[in-house]
Amino acid sequence: MQSSDRARPLRVGVVGLGRLGRRHAQNLAYRVPGATLAAACSPLEDDLTWARSALPETQLYNDYAQLLADDTLDAVWLVTPSSLHAQQIVDALHAGKHVFCEKPLSLDVAECQRVVEESRRFPAQQVTIGFMRRFDPSYHDAFEKVREGKIGRPFLVRSQNCDLNDPDGFFVRFAPTSGGIFLDCTVHDIDVARWLLGKPRATRVFAAGAVALHEGLRESGDVDNGVAICEFEGGKLAMFYASRTMAHGNDASSEVIGTAGALAIGRVPRMNRVEIYDAHGVRSECTPTFFERFEEAFLIEAQAFVAAVRARLDGAAGDAGQGASLEDALEATRIGYALRQSLQTGQAVTL
Amino acid sequence: MQSSDRARPLRVGVVGLGRLGRRHAQNLAYRVPGATLAAACSPLEDDLTWARSALPETQLYNDYAQLLADDTLDAVWLVTPSSLHAQQIVDALHAGKHVFCEKPLSLDVAECQRVVEESRRFPAQQVTIGFMRRFDPSYHDAFEKVREGKIGRPFLVRSQNCDLNDPDGFFVRFAPTSGGIFLDCTVHDIDVARWLLGKPRATRVFAAGAVALHEGLRESGDVDNGVAICEFEGGKLAMFYASRTMAHGNDASSEVIGTAGALAIGRVPRMNRVEIYDAHGVRSECTPTFFERFEEAFLIEAQAFVAAVRARLDGAAGDAGQGASLEDALEATRIGYALRQSLQTGQAVTL
Amino acid sequence: MQSSDRARPLRVGVVGLGRLGRRHAQNLAYRVPGATLAAACSPLEDDLTWARSALPETQLYNDYAQLLADDTLDAVWLVTPSSLHAQQIVDALHAGKHVFCEKPLSLDVAECQRVVEESRRFPAQQVTIGFMRRFDPSYHDAFEKVREGKIGRPFLVRSQNCDLNDPDGFFVRFAPTSGGIFLDCTVHDIDVARWLLGKPRATRVFAAGAVALHEGLRESGDVDNGVAICEFEGGKLAMFYASRTMAHGNDASSEVIGTAGALAIGRVPRMNRVEIYDAHGVRSECTPTFFERFEEAFLIEAQAFVAAVRARLDGAAGDAGQGASLEDALEATRIGYALRQSLQTGQAVTL
Amino acid sequence: MQSSDRARPLRVGVVGLGRLGRRHAQNLAYRVPGATLAAACSPLEDDLTWARSALPETQLYNDYAQLLADDTLDAVWLVTPSSLHAQQIVDALHAGKHVFCEKPLSLDVAECQRVVEESRRFPAQQVTIGFMRRFDPSYHDAFEKVREGKIGRPFLVRSQNCDLNDPDGFFVRFAPTSGGIFLDCTVHDIDVARWLLGKPRATRVFAAGAVALHEGLRESGDVDNGVAICEFEGGKLAMFYASRTMAHGNDASSEVIGTAGALAIGRVPRMNRVEIYDAHGVRSECTPTFFERFEEAFLIEAQAFVAAVRARLDGAAGDAGQGASLEDALEATRIGYALRQSLQTGQAVTL
């Protein structure tokens, strides 16, 4: 909390009010000092009804263009379908807004590149892509320890993004447009690996997969369990695992291995600090979804974005801060796309 | 978040701006929907200077009586020296305010009783004592599991409150007025035990202690490590441990044992989800102080108090909710006082 | 393995072939270099039948006096009912045998003292009481770390002996002669505490208990859950917990706290290194009985006894080695007896 | 222990008395009921001197052919350099002996096949390759749980074999003949994966690696950290990690993931049940080498081999029991060899 907290708050408009959008909206409305949730936008009447009761006084829009035309807004916060992200970011930049956008930037590498190029024309505006693990206190602690040299030179990351099995297989219907398991889930791990290893570029990848439970995925060439290896320049490595079929909960964990030690983040996805001693043994219950696991990360992410924009407004040099830049998001898509190619061809893909 | 979040916010005045007072003030200012931090009070100019820069527009007072006279305030939040709590609560009730007060209610049993009696004249006003563990998500989860019968009938609680050793021994200078280790530290465990066991009354206690490092405590008849047993009506039991000399961090943990299972809360006081693999083995770093350990609890506690008062204002029947009532605080002091007696006499004390 | 392994092996006779006796017999028969299981004794034909098939060529006796008369035996190994221990040890000493005897030495303090005095007449003969935790690799590691000063000066031990609930309540029928929960179970913890704290003498104890499930215990003044505090000379302390009603397994754990750190032994009574990830969360299965938990300790204990006797035979000065001496066993009974007194009177007992 | 323990013991000759050979020799001499260590063989005088003092009466040989000519021996136990294994197994079969041989069977796939074919001519003789993890109680427990369907259908294994860094880099000098990290270390993981997944054949592999610390490995095309993916028939998968540069100890762990749950074996390579609470946090010390980690496995492996041979002698149908057959060892070498190829070419290798 600095004196600037008393300065004019940053006025933010949230776009998209699905489950995650609502979480972001409430964080911005009630829990981010220095920000005001000034507008919210959704084409769905249900979402707007929710906004009227759950959010403080907020200008409501059902059209993104109208929201962009609202001159009182400093920033937009995009929690819209992935296919809209790229164009919405460009539009927001043209409208003079700072932009926070949920991952992924785009499933299409060329489109990612277009946004990166376009954004270079607006150097005064902040654009951050929502790889929220960077803001999770444990991931952040690991990042700091790596930076301080506590594990020597880091050279290998193992990272996974595993979801509790959804017997209804909602994601199966979503498969034709999700980009597949690597672009949908592993992008988080790709970003974590590059972030912890010093942002190297990938040079070669290999991926394989299995359909353990959801046969419907075969139609779209997707799998419900995927494994991958990624080689980076400088002899660095990553191993990835993604699953849609876990029995115990959402299990997002990572490990960074260096020449003098290793750090594991979230080895047991324990819900809290309670251990149960009963006929099953001694156990910890697990976080069911990424919502419970990364609740705090979503909040800190919002606080960090607002702080970064306000630092710019106070005259600081702009940078992505701890958050992921458009370039990071481009590289994540580039690697994720290559993993999909490798899965489909059975061959290693050189980047 | 309900529609009432849009109603007039509860106006709260924080009294006392030491380390913990500042934490409460910031929570109320920025993180508690439905509340406005409308005033802050401290006799120290340094505290008020801090308030001017770190808090939003807030009426500042250096005198408690003046703050009580402020008719725009609905509630006071007392984070003052323990010896002042009892009288300040009574004064606030007479001034028509709802009251949150940090533990302990008082080190004197008779004084506790006086406050309890006085408070009965003000049934429309909420008074909650700050036993924050009840609001820690893990403690709360354990409480719910006990209530749902997951461990059968609970009959034994083991609970500890252990602090990282302070080589400077600040608390040694504080010893003559702290009430001793049981009234200062173990009150939290006493409250946890009663809360998890269904609020039984104590029938007999025994305590013993050791001076491991801080010889200066002997003068005031205090110890830096204390152990105790408490028998409750209905054949229930508790074991307590308090220490000022831990090498690894603040270690506040509890265990509740029932006829069909047991729950342990906080067995390893891990700082976060990171594990370090290095020449020391595999390890978790620990929470250094109760501030890190109970950061979330302090926030949820404030949210719950505000919600409880607002529910009253909306016409709900008043109750202490999940928080500790004056009666709970009285019983905690009664037991803590008996533990001190037992420590000093070497005999079991019957209550 | 030293050259002496080729010397004449120590000839041992096991007395008592119940469940634990059979374990000892097989260890001595097959897994203890330097020892020969030369004889076994039981009044029960079933036991002898078992011995004929499961043990190697062994002289079988149904009478202890006859076994003692067997001049080819160097040592006896007593796994008989507790009430027989004291006299059988004395008889074995008179017969010129070294003695290993399962705990407890006796439930009667005076009888313990008699054995101690009698044994002083036979200084050349080894007598060890079977507190097997001392030989568990983890307990032993903790002991060594304490001895090396790794945790500074140790001043507090917390130790527990908790059994999986036996719905049939076998031990209820055994209660009138078991000595009660403290003499039957807590003696192990008493011995552990004294061993880790440098063998201090107790000065005062207090105990309390609860009948959680087995109402039949009330008749004999016993409880199925007991808690206790023990003060030792020099300001050292111990807290004990014993239970017959655990849902998760045999949970024998201890903790030793020093001025520079603490060691916990067996915090989670995990069966092995497997963790299960399923709908219950992440869990470890637990050791069901002390047999699984202390399997290795029983073996190492036998190897250590044999090594100690052989060292004597090779001319080394006799000592109890790592094992518990008769004096240790006397002190354990003295404290256990005082705990029972305290439980029954509700008062602290000064020793 | 069955009655057959009284039958004539199996007479075993150990060949090779290096560090691991000595361990096997002592197990067979003192800890395996039903076996007699009847002979030991080494070309090194030092080894034979050790045998004279540390082993019981044993016939000593400095020549393998002489040992094979010893008609009193039933079985040979080969702990010799890897390059000798294949021929020594064949010679032993021709000499009428049962064979236990340390892994690997051979670094050469064709040679493995030759041994497999030759062995088919001696169906009455047991040949087991020493993949000792199968006998580790935790691995065995996981195997049984998989077999009982506890995790549904297993489809993915993640397994690693990581060694404490040896600053002297002994293995660097050994690199030209070791076969590389995958044939030397990962064979264990390959065998574990196939064993837990129902012994499927591999169809495609990809490997990558890094030289983190030991630059000298580059000369022989080896790495000190290797990662790999292996696809099996039936859509099953494995991920492997091998390292020579761990800071915390020997870390051999595995995970098997099924459609209804997962099992992790040895996630934290804790030395024992002690946890240390000090200024470093809360930690477990780790097993420094595979000797400490698999001490029990080596013993159980020997007991199982002896039991399997004796069952044959008693007329049971011969099988490999729980141990690895020559066919298993051939498949492990085939996969390990393909991993090396993939590492060197950067391409996926189809089998």
From TrEMBL, chains A, B, C, D:
The keyword Membrane does not apply. Residues 10-121 form the Gfo/Idh/MocA-like oxidoreductase N-terminal domain. Keywords: Oxidoreductase. SUPFAM superfamilies: Glyceraldehyde-3-phosphate dehydrogenase-like, C-terminal domain (SSF55347), NAD(P)-binding Rossmann-fold domains (SSF51735). Residues 142-263 form the GFO/IDH/MocA-like oxidoreductase domain. GO terms for biological process: NADPH regeneration. Coiled coil: none annotated. One of its GO terms (molecular function) is nucleotide binding. This is Myo-inositol 2-dehydrogenase/D-chiro-inositol 1-dehydrogenase. GO terms for cellular component: cytoplasm. Transmembrane segments: none annotated. Belongs to the Gfo/Idh/MocA family. It comes from the Bacteria. Its EC number is 1.1.1.18, 1.1.1.369. InterPro entries: Gfo/Idh/MocA-like_OxRdtase_N, GFO_IDH_MocA-like_dom, NAD(P)-bd_dom_sf.
